[in-house]
Amino acid sequence: FGWLTGKNEPEAEVIFRLAFGPDAILQEAHAKLKLGYACASDPAVDKLLATEKPTRSELVALAWAEPKAAHLGFVTHQAVKLRRVGELAERCQQLAQLIFWQKFERALQTGPLVFGQLWLVLVTWLALVPVLAMFQPGPLGLLLGLVPFGLMVGLRLGSQHAQRSLMKPWRTETKPWGWNDHFIRCRAEISLLVRQYNLPTKRAEVMALFKRLNAERIDLAKPDLCQPVAEPPSPLGVQVVSFASWIIVIAVVAGSVGWAMKKPPDWAAHQKVWQAMFASAPKEKVKPKEPLTTQISWPYRAPAETPFEIVTQGVFNPDSQQSKYATERIHELLKQYKPETIDCLVAIYLPLEGPNGGLLLYDGKKGAFMGRNGILINFMPMPKMWMQIGDQRALFIEK
What we know:
The chain is an alpha+beta fold. It has helices at about 10-20, 25-35, 45-50, 55-65, 75-110, 110-115, 120-125, 130-135, 140-165, 185-195, 205-220, 235-260, 265-280, 320-335, and strands at about 35-40, 75, 310, 315, 345-350, 355-365, 370, 375, 385-390, 390-395.
């Protein structure tokens, strides 16, 4: 068994004496081992200890090991008992975890109107909106119809926090309980526990095994006091919310039917209210703005001194587009002034191809351009600038 290695004369002498000693001493040592130790960590030694009638050589080995059995891998009855009590406690915890999810699944299944699949819950409660809204035309009826839906949202949200706290000691290493989780999630948790710990699936078998192992653990621990593993409580809050959801739906449907029989909905009133809300308002006729008739007198007067003298670069004959532009431009500039007060020449600048630009002179007294030609200049005049062009003075008022 590997208990002795090399030369060990003192132990060899002890073995020699035991080998030639009386059987009573060997049997007594064997009896002490069986009384003090339940098994051994080495399978071969454990098998030898369990043998009812060992051979003489085996008795010699056991008699030699008896004084030092604790150091040779022998396990006491107390240690075996404690280990078994721990194993039973762990198994009961696994079963308790499974019981919790089975109870939780059943509780959720009693309240599909709140704890069912989210799309089905929303469809169910939204279907109640028109049931209540038909008794009150307009937005007020719509708000009335949304009251049960709001209650459902409140119940589901309020229950979610309580459910997370309830399942905290029992949940597996998976994602937290979410808004969209329902009894299908419970089945997934149950399936995981069954596979992981090799547990039974039927609820009756799980409860029977849990109670039996709990009782075995308590009996095994005697005379020491051993608290049983607590059975998970039923999710009372979930059951209350489930019951409340059924009461709300039944009350809404039954009350609506009774009220409709007593006072049928006025569909014409509904149509009138909603048409009035969404009907487009009559468009007000916008009166066209009257043209500005207030004109002022011509405020510009020729200076007494000689203004800036323009050195012309030649003349040009404007085409039809340039003439049209100049006419529109002079009318735009002079429309705010009384025509009879305009007593000078007004210059209109025309951009041309090449280095020069062009000026056309408008005679304010005659209300027309002077001649058919314009003059070429090589710069852009400043706004409100008086210019001397030959023997004529002209004002440039463009901005």
